[in-house]
Write a structure and sequence with these properties.
about 725 residues; alpha/beta; Rossmann fold; 5 domains; 7-stranded parallel sheet; 6-stranded parallel sheet; about 25% strand; binds adenosine-5'-diphosphate; binds zinc ion
């Protein structure tokens, strides 16, 4: 009799012990990394075996494992270590960590092995004998010719031949269908088809040869202005890795992953590329996971969670647009895919390449302190010039639909010239608030204390915090007046305004409302590149990764919000947004202008950014962070607490404060309200612990958490831990 230590997906930071019967057919010691189904309370849960032991623990009341779900481990030794490291680093329950590391289908107990495949097998002796009998059916003869040399997976046959050809061959009893266990016959190495590379320029060459020379773990940060040819650098270094038959994992931001991205890699390397994005369903995800672990994929391009894919011969990891927020998961396990990529690269002793036109201050700091090898691309590759950024003082200026009159004239001119114009708006919907003209009452979501956003397209009002949707009110709740006014501008209203002002041009709105649905965003992007639309209006999504070569004028409606934000990362994010948006404009041989509307044109941050560019701006921000002792110079762990009863939060975070304050070397901030103070009828507060030593912070918080779990409210309020938080909402 032996027992297993199992990581069970429950919010407790420990593993659980279960008995397992001796088994003649398999060695129980090889169960590490397999899934088991175990009784937990009155439920059955699926956990991962962490360890096997035959020293029975003192408590003999152990329950038995109900079932072993895998015939071979789904997590190998390295992935097991990764899971344990994540649990430690993010102070997160280990069972939930392993849950997050596997595709949903496996979490639900679906078989991990691939099912048997159907094959066509020949049922004739001599191919030449068929040549006369199949004279009239050339296609059937072709199929038989293939079958003469090997059995053909039915799926493959269906790609090459029509249903009637296959049916014909089966009916003439020239072939039979057989089932065979899956074997990785589709090795990607055989499908590599490399197209010639571009002639790299001097800066690209320096980067390429530096990365090529890394034969072991090393991190590279490519700081390259938009359009400087970072992707070309990736392509050229990837070529060498796959020629050594090693796999490459490329992490990209959530919405940067379009069919065009994948096509660019396939054009260079052939059909060895798989894309993993949020549009895939559970079984598609499982299939990619299986193909990845069976070594059928050479290049995987994926969003955040792809960092957990098992890749048996990984040779390089690339994190493109490494500054992007979508690499950080903001709920449950709050991991940052870049941090995990660093760990994996180190563990496998392979190079890691990060690239961005606007690197995160964390990565820049690592580059300056020589932890990362810093590579710079300062010029646009294809002779395109950088767009000019201009601050427009809108104090006391006439605005139409929030846009300065003078800028509207510029819009008209660019449109007349056949160019495209891009307008960036912070908010989606029609207007961020509606209020009563008579008494000023603002229609707000009660559960969140948050003004409703008016949506004209769907004709309703929506709370952007909790998603609540209500009909547009007819009368004011406070005074019964029927006169309403909207406050502020959202994308819908700007689109409406521009349609009215420029009726002869087509406009397109790109926000999370208009791009909902599979393939919708890439359809709209294709229309833009096809010049179907001349006016592009959008939110964040427009700023990310896509190329709009015909955009010669970009307008950012309002930059002031970020200048006075309580979030210390706001200036960094503003600089990234403005620079990235600018990078969309004037890519080809067209010069671009980017206009920033502001009430504070002489604000030192804006001046620095516009005069000196992001690289300088980021360096000043870093200096400032250093002076005031903020990340990346200090490290933070955030404790967030939510409850309907404010006094519960105060009691729990008060206790947390009293506990953590005993670690005298930690700095404590709070408890204070989160940026979103209330959501879905729950109040929200946070407490931040900070230290210059990450290790000290980690250890101290680890012991503090053990104490917090003993508090009477620990299981009654919602609370979570966020290591290296990036979002204080
Ligand atoms: P980034 O990834 O930095 O935004 P890309 O790799 O997409 O830049 O390159 C921008 C444009 O410049 C693309 O059209 C690309 O084909 C072109 N390009 C990149 N490198 C070169 C080069 N060495 N010679 C000519 N054109 C290049
Ligand atoms: Zn009123
Ligand atoms: Zn709400």
């Amino acid at each position: 009799m032996c027992y297993l230590k199992v990581a069970v997906p429950v919010p407790l930071r420990k593993s659980f012990d279960y008995l397992v019967q001796p088994n003649d057919d398999r060695d129980n010691y090889k169960l590490v990394g397999c899934r088991v189904s175990v009784p937990f309370g009155n439920r059955q849960l699926i956990g991962i075996v962490l360890a096997v032991s035959d020293d029975l623990p003192p408590e003999h009341q152990l329950k038995s494992v109900s079932a072993i779900l895998d015939s071979k481990p789904i997590f190998n030794f390295q992935m097991m270590n990764l899971g344990k490291w994540i649990a430690d680093y993010y102070l997160h329950p280990i069972g939930e960590v392993f849950g997050a590391m596997m595709p949903t289908a496996l979490r639900k107990g679906v078989k991990s092995e691939r099912s048997a495949l159907k094959y066509l097998q020949r049922d004739f002796d001599d191919l030449s004998a068929l040549e006369t009998s199949l004279k009239q059916s050339k296609k059937q003869l072709q199929l038989c010719a293939l079958l003469a040399s090997h059995d053909l997976p039915l799926l493959e046959a269906k790609k090459q031949f029509s249903q009637s050809v296959i049916r014909g061959v089966l009916e003439k009893q020239l072939a039979v269908e057989v089932e065979k266990p899956y074997e990785a016959l589709l090795l990607w190495q055989r499908r590599i088809d490399i197209a010639p590379a571009l002639q790299a320029n001097v800066e690209q060459n320096i980067a390429i040869s530096a990365i090529d020379h890394a034969s072991s773990f090393q991190s590279f940060l490519i700081e390259g202005v938009t359009g400087s040819g970072k992707t070309e650098v990736y392509l050229q270094v990837i070529e060498k890795i796959i020629s050594r038959t090693k796999q490459v994992l490329i992490l990209v931001p959530e919405i940067g992953l379009t069919p065009q991205t994948v096509k660019r890699f396939e054009q260079r390397f052939g059909p060895i590329v798989a894309a993993v994005h949020s549009g895939l369903n559970d079984s598609e995800r499982l299939r990619i996971w299986q193909q990845a672990s069976d070594g059928e994929l050479g290049i995987i391009i994926g969003t955040r969670s792809s960092v957990f894919l098992p890749l048996p011969s990984l040779g390089m990891i690339i994190v493109d647009e490494e500054h992007d927020d979508s690499f950080k998961q903001q709920d449950k396990l709050k991991y940052h895919a870049r941090d995990i990529a660093v760990y994996r690269a180190r563990q496998l002793d392979i190079p890691l390449v990060m690239g961005s036109a606007t690197p995160s201050l964390e990565s820049l700091h690592n580059a300056f302190s020589k932890k990362y090898h810093h590579l710079q691309l300062t010029q646009r590759a294809a002779n395109a010039s950088m767009p000019v950024q201009i601050l427009l003082d809108i104090k006391d200026q006439a605005l139409e639909y929030g846009i300065a009159k003078g800028l509207l004239e510029k819009v008209a001119m660019q449109l007349r010239l056949g160019n495209q114009v891009l307008i960036f708006v912070h908010r989606r919907g029609y207007a961020p608030a509606i209020l009563c003209h008579k008494c000023g009452y603002v229609e707000s979501c009660q559960a969140c204390d948050n003004p409703y956003t008016l949506h004209q397209v769907t004709r309703n009002i929506q709370c952007h915090r909790c998603g609540d949707i209500q009909p547009i009110p007819r009368t004011c709740k406070a005074c019964s007046s029927t006169q309403f006014e909207t406050f502020g501008y959202g994308t819908e209203q700007i689109e409406e305004g521009l349609k009215r002002l420029f009726p002869e041009y087509s406009s397109v709105r790109i926000d999370s409302d208009s791009t909902r649905g599979k393939g919708r965003l890439s359809d709209l992007l294709a229309q833009i590149n096809n010049n179907d639309h001349q006016i592009l209006i959008g939110t964040q999504i427009l700023s990310k990764g896509h190329h709009f070569p015909n955009v010669t004028l970009a307008i950012i409606l309002n930059v002031d919000g970020s200048l006075f934000s309580a979030d210390f990362r706001a200036p960094e994010k503003l600089g990234q947004l403005i620079t990235q948006l600018s990078g969309r404009a004037g890519r080809a041989n067209k010069n671009g202008e980017v206009w920033l509307q502001t009430h504070h044109p002489s604000h030192p941050l804006l001046q620095d950014l516009v005069q000196n560019g992001f690289a300088d701006y980021a360096r000043s921000l870093l200096l400032e962070r250093k002076h005031v002792g903020l990340p990346p110079y200090e490290h933070q762990i955030l404790l967030r607490c939510e409850a309907a009863d404010l006094s519960h939060i105060e009691e729990f975070l008060g206790f947390a404060h009293a506990t953590i304050v005993q670690f005298t070397k930690l700095k404590l901030i709070g408890p204070l309200p989160c940026a979103i103070e209330k959501k879905q009828a729950r109040f929200r507060m946070m407490l931040i612990a900070q230290s210059a030593s990450r290790v000290y912070l980690q250890r101290a918080m680890q012991s503090a958490l053990d104490v917090l779990h003993t508090h009477r409210l620990a299981s009654r309020v919602r609370w979570s831990v966020d290591v290296a938080p990036s979002d204080f909402s």
